[in-house]
Amino acid sequence: MGHTEATADGESQSESESQSEGESQGASQGASASQGASASQGESESRSESKGRRRRRLRRITLAVLLVLLLPLLTAETALRVNYMGDPADGTYTRNRDAIWLGHAWVDGRKDDADLAAFARRVKTTGIRDLYVHTGPMEHDGTLPKSLYPKARWLIDGVHRELPGVRVQAFLGDVLATEGPDGMRLEKAATRAAVVDSARQVLDAGYEGVHLDLEPLHSGDRDYLSLLDDVRAVTRDRDAQLSVAAHQIDPLPALHSVFGLFTKHPKWWSQEFFGQVARRVDQIAVMSYDTAQPLEGTYGGYVAQQTSLALEVTPPTTHLLMGLPFYHESNFDHWGHAETVAAAVRGVRLGLSRTDADRELFGVAPYIDFAATGKNWDEYREGWVRQDP
C-alpha cells in the first residue's frame, strides 16, 4: 500500500470513526435534552398543581371567613324578622300622649299664622300633646343666643290658642366632642352650668319644658347624668317638663362596647344606662330610626325589640316615646324603603303588647315636621291613632 493509499485508508477510517463518535455523542445529547424536557415539564406541572392547591385553600379560607361573618348577621336578621310576626294586642293604640319634633322655622320668623292654623288642623285629631320645637343649637360652651328664637312667644301663644292642652318645649341640642376635637364638652363644669342657665332662659321665654338632644352621647357618661340632675332641679321648680332624645339600646348585650373597639362611634346605649337616664327625666324619646335595617320586616322587628328593651327599664312614672321616621332618604344608615312609618308603628305595638300593654305614659314621636309627607301622616293615623283625618 503506497503513502497515498495508506493516507486515504486512514482518512476513510478516521472519518468513519469520527462519524460513529458524532452519532453516539448526538444520541447522548438528544437523550439528555429529552430527559431535561421531561424534568422541566414535570416541574411546571408540579408548580401548576401547587398553585391550584393554594387557590383552592384560599377559596376555602375566604368562604369560611365569610360564613363566620355572615352567619351571625343572617341569624340576627332572621330573628328580627320573626320578631315582626304575630298580631298586636287590642287596645295598643295612642294614649293621647304623643309628641313631634318641629323645625327651627317655627321660632325664627319663617312661619306665620296661616302655617300655624294648617298645622293645628292636622294635629287636632291625633294623639300629639307635646311639641319639641328646635330652639338651639346651643354654643359649644353651653350658652344659647336669644337671637335664635325671636318668634318663640308668638308660637307658644298661638299653640295655646289653636291647640289647648298641647305643651311647647324648647328643643336644645349640640354636637358633643366625644368623637372629634370640636363640640360641647360635658366634662367641663362650666359648660354644664351654662346649659342649666340656657334651660332657665327658655323657661323664662314661656316654654313649658326643655328637650335635650346631645349627640353623639356615649353609654355610661356620668357627666351627662349629672347635667340631667341639675336641669331637672330647675324644671321641677318651674313645674315644667324635662325630656331627652335617647340613643337606641344594645340589641345584643354589650354591643356598644364591641362596636366601639372597631369604630369611634359606639352608637347604642346599654340598657342599664338607658334606665339611669329614664329615671332622671319626665319624658324619654327613643330615636328609633337610622337603624341600617335593609328590609321593612327587619326594621319593624328591630323597633319591636327596642320598644320592649326600653319598657323594661323605664319607670312607669316616666313618659316613654318611640320615634317614627317622618322623612325619606336612602343611605347606609336609613333605607327609605325599609324604615317606614307603618313598620315602625306596627313594631311599637308589638313591643308594647309583649312587654307592658297597659302602660299609660307611652306614646310615639314623629321626626320631623318639615320632611313629613302625606303618606307619613296617613300611616301614623291608620296604624296608631285609628281615627279618620
Description:
By secondary structure, the chain is an alpha/beta fold. The chain contains ten helices and eight strands. The longest helix is centred in the first third of the chain and has 81 residues, at 3-83. The radius of gyration is 37 Å and the shape is globular. Residues 1-28 have low confidence and may be disordered.
Q: Main attributes?
A:
single chain; 389 residues; alpha/beta; eight-stranded parallel beta sheet; 50% helix; globular; disordered N terminus
Care to count the β-strands? Answer: 8
Order of helices and strands: HEHEHEHEHEHHEHEHEH
Q: For the terminal residues, how far apart are their CA atoms?
A: 139 Å
Low-confidence segments, given as residue ranges, are: 1-28
Largest sheet: number of strands, sense, barrel closure: 8 strands, parallel
| Helix proportion | 40-55%
Give me the Rg, rounded.
37 Å
Number of helices: 10
Q: Indicate the proportion of strand residues.
A: 5-15%
Structural class: alpha/beta
Order of strands in the sheet with most strands: 1-2-3-4-5-6-7-8
- Average pLDDT across residues? 88
Basic shape: globular
